[in-house]
Protein: Dodecin family protein
Amino acid sequence: MTVARVTEISATSDKSFEDAVNQGIDRASKTLRGVTGAWIKEQKVTVSGGSIASYQVNMMVSFVLDD
Amino acid sequence: MTVARVTEISATSDKSFEDAVNQGIDRASKTLRGVTGAWIKEQKVTVSGGSIASYQVNMMVSFVLDD
Amino acid sequence: MTVARVTEISATSDKSFEDAVNQGIDRASKTLRGVTGAWIKEQKVTVSGGSIASYQVNMMVSFVLDD
Amino acid sequence: MTVARVTEISATSDKSFEDAVNQGIDRASKTLRGVTGAWIKEQKVTVSGGSIASYQVNMMVSFVLDD
Amino acid sequence: MTVARVTEISATSDKSFEDAVNQGIDRASKTLRGVTGAWIKEQKVTVSGGSIASYQVNMMVSFVLDD
Amino acid sequence: MTVARVTEISATSDKSFEDAVNQGIDRASKTLRGVTGAWIKEQKVTVSGGSIASYQVNMMVSFVLDD
Amino acid sequence: MTVARVTEISATSDKSFEDAVNQGIDRASKTLRGVTGAWIKEQKVTVSGGSIASYQVNMMVSFVLDD
Amino acid sequence: MTVARVTEISATSDKSFEDAVNQGIDRASKTLRGVTGAWIKEQKVTVSGGSIASYQVNMMVSFVLDD
Amino acid sequence: MTVARVTEISATSDKSFEDAVNQGIDRASKTLRGVTGAWIKEQKVTVSGGSIASYQVNMMVSFVLDD
Amino acid sequence: MTVARVTEISATSDKSFEDAVNQGIDRASKTLRGVTGAWIKEQKVTVSGGSIASYQVNMMVSFVLDD
Amino acid sequence: MTVARVTEISATSDKSFEDAVNQGIDRASKTLRGVTGAWIKEQKVTVSGGSIASYQVNMMVSFVLDD
Amino acid sequence: MTVARVTEISATSDKSFEDAVNQGIDRASKTLRGVTGAWIKEQKVTVSGGSIASYQVNMMVSFVLDD
Structure:
């Protein structure tokens, strides 16, 4: 038997979508033990003065619960 | 870089949907620091004796994580 | 054991969305016994001459079946 | 034969969701002729200091095209 | 007024889907007070050597928040 | 030519999801003639004191209309 | 104030999808007063011996309720 | 590099769904240059006196933007 | 016990949507034995010079597997 | 690097949904090498004479491709 | 009060998905004033001779309307 | 007339999402003739020891059928 939780994380980067995914996983792993993966739910950009200011990724992060 | 979490809150009011949204934001802000917004996911009413007994709103509440 | 039916009701009001929900619950309760609640499925407005003429709400109304 | 267009409008109010719907219909009717209605697509709130700062509604606005 | 939270739990059993639901509710109730119900979001199986190795259920678990 | 109706039924059992499906089909067949099948739309459990109190299934039941 | 119901009808024709829509509206209008429209929800064909045997359309039929 | 826009058009015909699609494409091509295609989003009928009064199709029309 | 597979087929016709459905069923039946039906998933048109050049239908085709 | 395919299987049992899942996995494993799991997409029952005649499950079956 | 419009843009690049997003934002900003962001709706590739010929991104671009 | 099939491929890379798309297209083109494109359905990461171990992309790959 394994029981895991899934929580939504939103991460923002000024470089790229994949950097945002990395930032979100890094930050989640500082607080949550046993992170096993994430499913990308949404991708957005903010625009300022006609060019992309930031990349935002919302993801569903899974982590295993201790018994 | 900003990392936020998104969590689902269900709030119930006997007055109106907007009062339910307010109650949910109030309650969430007591426990969670850095609440920035909420997206309304579902609206329901319960009915008793032919008239509305309560208004329920489920919403996805975002709050920024400290570093 | 409890068995309920769920039926879609569309109600229109010239006042507000919540008045439309109330009108729909009132009308449904005149015909159906045992209404227990409703889930809001859609909200629409009709517009005439640049301002809102009516508020329409579609909702899934639940009512318990007698044995 | 009737041909209409449907365009997404996002309107923000500091009072209520219904005020936001009204603001959006008002603004759309200033630019677009023949607005006939709108379908509510999303409802959001922004939160500041633990209470609601604004109500945002995204809606699909329909308007009839002249021949 | 009642305010509840809804969180996603993923539970795995080598017996059946309903055993997975039971395991997930058991585990959630050890950590969370006031669990009132769960909505089944996804059902999956893993397969090994041509037969089912485990049953996984993802569910949205609701629990009431204390004031 | 065949014309059928599809109606949503919600059935609750304290034993299992499949018992709930059976209860719902039994109850629907008492009122509706010509039931041909059902599509499972939602599965939920209610929880009381940390264990499952009831299994609820919402299903779309089809039945053929007489000419 | 107007209150309408919306019910799902499934109609089958051996000619075409549009004939199926017509059959379903005809049959619904025999039983239900005040049918105002229908929204096409699903289109299916059955195949027998490599060619189409029937066209099936599921539609959400709206009809106004008398006061 | 190619950049296109996608806009929603709703077209109504008293003959058939395909006539409605044709009417919508004709009307869109009068105003928009470079229409390349359309995706059917919704199909509806209005009913009057028990038979179909009009066929409505909502479609997402794509057209290429000039540089 | 019956086991079937469901596969997505995309068929294009310069005549109509129903001709596209027929072409797709014909072609699928040449390769696959035991085709029993299809569910229409998407309908699209391509446009050239302001009028419809082709009708495309994506459908989920079911066929029974031999033992 | 791993590449897998995902294919939809529909399986029918006269016993239960879980027996249908088992039948489908058994049958898929006879033809496809490297089946790793399945995601339950739909659950249906057929009804005859007022009681359940068969349980049908549609599932998305994954299997690893050889290099 | 702020009112914005949201319009769908489809952009194609032969380099990468993120280049396509950039091209689309650049092109949109040439025509539309006040672009504030975009939500990624779809990602596609076209393939020619066994390798990727272009990356296409459909996105919902928001821009603020002047009063 | 053109008839195509659409099949779901899941590809995994330890470098990036775009490398996973490329790997999947490469592998699909080895087995399937006439691949014309792919639509990205899902993006996931697996995490190990707090950082991303692999990037997984599920995509719907289209390929033209020979007559």
Observations:
- The first helix of chain I runs from residue 17 to 31.
- Chain I has a mean pLDDT of 95.
